[in-house]
Amino acid sequence: MIIQIDPNIREIDFNNLTEKIKGLHYTSSRVSTQFGEYVIGVGKKPFDIRSIGTMPGILDIHRVSDAYKLVSKKWKVNDTIIDLGEGVRLGTGHFAMMAGPCSIESEEQVASTIKHLVGQGIRIMRGGVYKPRSSPYSFRGLGPDGLKMWYEQAREAGVRIITEVMMTEQIEGMYDYVDIFQVGARNSQNFNLLDALGKVDKPVLLKRGMSGTINELLQSAEYIFSNGNEIIMLCERGISTYESAYRNTMDVNAIAMLKEKTHLPVIADPSHGIGLRSYVPQIALAGVMAGADGVILEVHERPEKAFSDAQQTLSYQEAANLYQGLKKAYDLRESLM
Ligand code: PEP
Ligand code: MN
Questions:
Q1: Which residues does 114 contact at the CB level (< 8 Å), separation at least 6?
Q2: What does the pLDDT read at residue 337?
Q3: Mutation test of ligand 1: which of 103, 138, 237, 239 has the most ligand atoms closer than 8 Å to its C-beta?
Q4: Which ligand 1 atom sits nearest the alpha carbon of residue 207?
Q5: Mind listing the domains of the chain with CATH numbers?
Q6: Cα dihedral 127, 86, 77, 335 sign
Q7: What is the pLDDT of residue 65?
Q8: Which residues of the chain carry a pLDDT beneath 70?
Q9: Closest residue (by CA) to atom 3 of ligand 1?
């Protein structure tokens, strides 16, 4: 059961509420998020929810019959808009593009990428400093020093940083330098990491697992929300299927369906979604047409030289053409739907 309480609930009313929940043999925990104050009660015994709903200081109460609720439209009808400051917004009505290399490689590379992005009016730069790699002998990222170097340059240019966090222990050291924490496909069901990101007050981009279902993605997002962080965006980045002609199968169906099921922003990642440079533009456009609120792209000054994911990385010129196309596609979609 999820109970939304008045943020100014009187202490006596709050104590009565917790006593009432205890009496039902439910456990209860209070969760404060950026947008609300909740009590989450977990237990088995059936009871009439009106007996709690009518208590003083209670704004709303929902029974949780599904595996997720807070991230669904059943909980919140108005879509979540994520505000990254200085006019950078993301979500329904605020189409956002994010681009950058797969991995942060050097000071020169960061400078060149920022110049490209600023020239294109893009305010959010992606890049990995902790890289999950299939082989332990591949480049695994520049780590905290790389992040600080990136941050110095990004702040100066007014560019926001999205980067992957792989372990709970990394959160604290990354916190001051990150605007959006990315949870990669391989960690989509790392529940300890999701719990920990729920206690952070910065946005999280949660990727779908390579073999994860839409339901599993939503349940993972519920972990973050139910721990106190409502600023989450979901990302379709392709799934593993029996098709081997390309790296992953970009599931545009999921984008359309997620937009119906959740109030959270949905982002398309066509770079990982197909994994082959020459098809990234088509798949990016398909993602927008399916309803994505934003697109995240891998770009590099010399894509063939990129330390990771070279085969799916666009050149600046290819990316610039695509940004224009994506804006047009977004406007067309909005006029059609
Ligand atoms: C990435 O964004 O570079 C990445 C590793 O993505 P994913 O987790 O989707 O594979
Ligand atoms: Mn990558």
A1: 125, 153, 154, 157, 159
A2: 87
A3: 237
A4: 9
A5: 2-62 (3.30.70.1140), 82-336 (3.20.20.70)
A6: negative
A7: 83
A8: none
A9: 102
